[in-house]
Amino acid sequence: MSTSAKSVRGLGAAGTGTTHHIRQRVTAIALLFLVPWFVFSIIVACKAGFAGAQAWVAQPWNAILLILTLSAALYHMRLGLQTVVEDYIGKSGTKQALLILNTFAVIALFAATILSVLKIWITASV
Fold first, then answer.
1. How far apart are CA 52 and CA 84, in angstroms?
2. DSSP assigned state of 14
3. Angle 109-112-117 (CA atoms, 0-180°, nearest 5)?
4. For the stretch 88-113, what's the b/e string if a residue is b when 16 or more beta carbons lie within 10 angstroms of its beta carbon?
5. What's the pTM value of the predicted model, to 2 decimals?
6. Which of 17, 24, 30, 96 would be 72's cystine partner, CB 3.0–4.6 Å?
7. Where in the chain are the domains?
8. Is the pLDDT of residue 11 over 60?
9. What pLDDT is recorded for position 23?
10. Would you tell me the crossing angle of helices 17-47 and 49-58 to the nearest 10 degrees?
11. What mean pLDDT comes out for the span 13-18?
């Protein structure tokens, strides 16, 4: 029993398995560095109260790293939920609806968090 080389060189049954896996690993590695910074910084910023937290977000490097952290976390979450839906939901219509809902929910969260950070950052610099 042998398999032709052209059918084995693909990316798996769906054709995108390797790309999805690599993207999830890259975001996980990014979060490995960003989350400890985020947790430490949030603890320090919150000890200073609301005004201190706003001042912390208004600093350029903190705002940039916060946007990177939120972006990586939300994209990683989207990829993980996509995998769960694809693996455990059997009905095709339900699966497609949940995948679309997953994408729209992440886009909405991304827009809300990024706009919030940018508003604080830009308002403080004016």
1. 39
2. S
3. 120
4. eeeeeeeeeebbeebeeebeeebeeb
5. 0.82
6. 30
7. 14-125
8. no
9. 94
10. 130
11. 66
Q: What residues have CB less than 8 Å from 51, skipping those under 6 apart? A: none
**Which residue in this structure is represented by tokens 């201190």?**
52
Which CATH topology does 14-125 take?
3 helical TM bundles of succinate and fumarate reductases (1.20.1300)
Query: Residue 108 corresponds to which tokens in the numbers above?
Result: 């909405």
| Mean local confidence (pLDDT), 63-68 | 96
pLDDT digits (tens, 9 = 90+) for 67-90: 999 999 999 999 999 999 999 999
Are the C-beta atoms of residues 58 and 119 closer than 8 Å to each other?
no
pLDDT confidence tier of residue 6, bands split at 50, 70 and 90: low
pLDDT of residue 16: 62
Rounded to the nearest 5 degrees, what angle is found at the Cα of 69, between the Cα atoms of 109 and 89? Answer: 50
CA distances 39 to 24, 43, 87, 96, 97, Å, are: 21, 6, 32, 35, 34
- Say yes or no to pLDDT of 66 above 90: yes
